[in-house]
Amino acid sequence: MEKKIDIGIVGGSGYTGMELLKILGRHKYSNICFITSRSREGKKIGGLYPALKEEKYGSLAFTSGHSADDHAAMDVLFLCLPPHSSMKYLAEIGSLKKTAVIDIGSDFRINDPLEYEKWYGSRHMLPEMLQDFTYGLPEINREKIIKSRYIANPGCYPTSILLGLAPLLKSSYKIDSIIVDSKSGVSGAGRKLKEMYLFGSIDNNFYAYSPAGHRHIGEMEQEIEKLAGHRLQLDFTPHLLPVSRGIFSTIYCSMVQDGSKGIQDSLEGLYENFYSRSRFVRYMGNNIPAMKDTLGTNLCMIGTAYDSRTGTLKIFSTLDNLVKGAAGQAVQNMNLALGLEEQEGLDLNGIFS
Q: Which residues of the chain have pLDDT under 50?
């Protein structure tokens, strides 16, 4: 493919937008036509981020907005917006007949408008569009994404958890319950000026939040039902770590199984076979991955351990919340939707120290 891909980025001054810029800067087909930010209108990327001054998009300036015609002329539109904002934006700009829309926000991840209202506390402005969006988890929905024009990028927590669970849920094993304990770096909350995210609050500190009813449960239970073929409730508790980026999820699955030999003998083959075609998921067997193993990459690393005493399978899943959990996965989805090599722009060097 020789033709450049015309790209618009909406809400590009946050952590995800900046990560998207870095990735697209090394993508050989990308051509960013505009990037919006009301708070940084007129400022050049290279002026705000000196390390990007001499890069591909260093002279690109933020704008406050563009016309519906400008949006319609794009090949791809990335929406990097907070909850309730992507649907409002699409409602304002109207129909996009040929533009692929990749929503990195949360507005189109849940298929049922009543479920959306339950988890997000307000009615959906575009309920008729919910079924148009494909849940953009490439390792699970690759064929659907290839045929899609509207893609809902999964949340960072759900990506780590669903990738950890998928081989098990698609297998013949039966699960009684799923309990998830996830830890995230503070960048997962975005650039919010809240006391709990300030250095003095998070430094040398560690705590849980939203322990009963985190909004990501809705999309996770929806996708778990699709994988398992029946409903399963998820007991999910997120925690905030005093680090800038990364997610580590420990998933506890209570297994319905007589004896442990069958599980221990078949887990490695089960996970390796499931992800044999997945460039960005690595199964580590009994080796437990560390958060730093994936930082700065589009990888999700997974390890497993079966506790025969309690009949519990423990799944360990880690990824970079800004890359595989957001911008990297969005570019992966773009590549699939436009018929490009899935890894284009995503062969990234990690952050090891």
A: none
Instruction: Order across the sheet with 234-240: list the strands.
Output: 207-208, 234-240, 174-184, 247-256, 312-319, 300-307, 281-283
Token pair, residue 188, equals 């997962």
Residue-wise burial string across 300-321, b where 16 or more C-beta atoms lie within 10 A, e elsewhere: bbbbbbbeeeebbbbbbbbbbb
Select which of 80, 156, 253, 300 is catalytic: 156
Instruction: Kindly report the three-state secondary structure assignment for every residue of 265-319.
Output: HHHHHHHHHHCCCCCCEEECCCCCCCHHHCCCCCCEEEEEEEECCCCEEEEEEEE
pLDDT in the model for residue 201: 73
Tell me which fold the domain 157-321 belongs to: Dihydrodipicolinate Reductase; domain 2 (3.30.360)
Instruction: Give the C-alpha separation, 104 to 330, whole Å.
Output: 7
* 156 flagged as catalytic: yes
Smallest Cα–Cα separation from 33: which of 85, 99, 103, 105?
99
Q: What is the pLDDT of residues 37-50, one digit of tens each?
A: 888 888 898 888 88
Q: Domains of the chain: which residue ranges?
A: 5-132, 157-321
* Its pTM surpasses 0.85: yes
At residue 353, the pLDDT reads: 63
What angle (nearest 5°) sits at the alpha carbon of residue 236, between those of residues 82 and 11?
10
Give the phi and the psi of residue 145 in degrees, each rounded to 5: -65, -40
Q: What is the CATH number of domain 5-132?
A: 3.40.50.720
Angle, in degrees to the nearest 10, between helices 156-169 and 261-274: 120
Beta strands in the chain (DSSP E): 5-10, 30-36, 62-63, 76-79, 100-103, 134-135, 150-152, 174-184, 207-208, 234-240, 247-256, 281-283, 300-307, 312-319
* Rounded Cα–Cα distance for residues 53 and 60 (Å): 10
3-state secondary structure of 231: coil
**What's the confidence (pLDDT) of residue 116?**
97
Q: What is the pLDDT of residue 20?
A: 95
Of 63, 151, 138, residue with least CA distance to 101: 151
